[in-house]
Specification:
alpha/beta; eight-stranded mixed β-sheet
Amino acid sequence: MSSGIQFDEATARSLEIMYRTPDVAGQRSRVLAALALRPGERVLDVGVGPGLLAHDMALTVGSTGRVAGIDASEAMTAMATRRCADLEGCDFRVADATKLPFEDGSFDAVVSTQVYEYVADLDLALAEVARVLRPGGRVFVLDTDWDSAIWHTRDRARMRRVLSAWEEHLHDPWLPRTLGRRLEDAGLDVHHLDVIPLVNPSLHRNCYSFGILAAIAAFVAGRRGVDADEAEAWAAELRELGASGEYFFSINRYLFGAIKTGTPR
């Protein structure tokens, strides 16, 4: 996975705050609805993060079901374990998306949100998904095309420089453009495609872009010619636009659903 951002305890806490915003909570509800889990099913969350989706899935599959989750971050798996401590059938482990520590055909469903854009060997990771799914099992993958990010600014050249530097935090900033074909190549028949926009017409603490703004400003300084002063000036302008009622942010996430129907191409 990309080493652009270290997912330590501080990052885990920041992500948890961001994931609790109405923007991301709405996204999570749409993913859960698309999964259409039933009591007793076995589901794997690849990149479980702070465990918010895992908790909702555990409530859905009930005590007869199973929710497993992996994450490359020990801080994330610890947070997910604490969140689901009172629920039966939950199992969270530190593991790599390209080496899933489960037997063939272990799951009825697999889900991964905002993870595969960080994975260098995506084709191997998707082959692992196909391996651990039972025949007829389903997978849902959500990732972002970062070219879809729109921020109102008076300095478009600076915005382009900052967002270009931000691309270094992951492996593939444009993954949705090739994800459908690569799922099919792994033997997963794509049957569902949806776009989930996150739109913030104002800036406040309980919106997605408030958290991502701070993360971007901290990350880009010193990358692709963006120095610390420029990164701060970029963030300061957005805060000023928020204060004056001129703020606007939007980004698109794409949800792919597929079924294990055959062998890899």
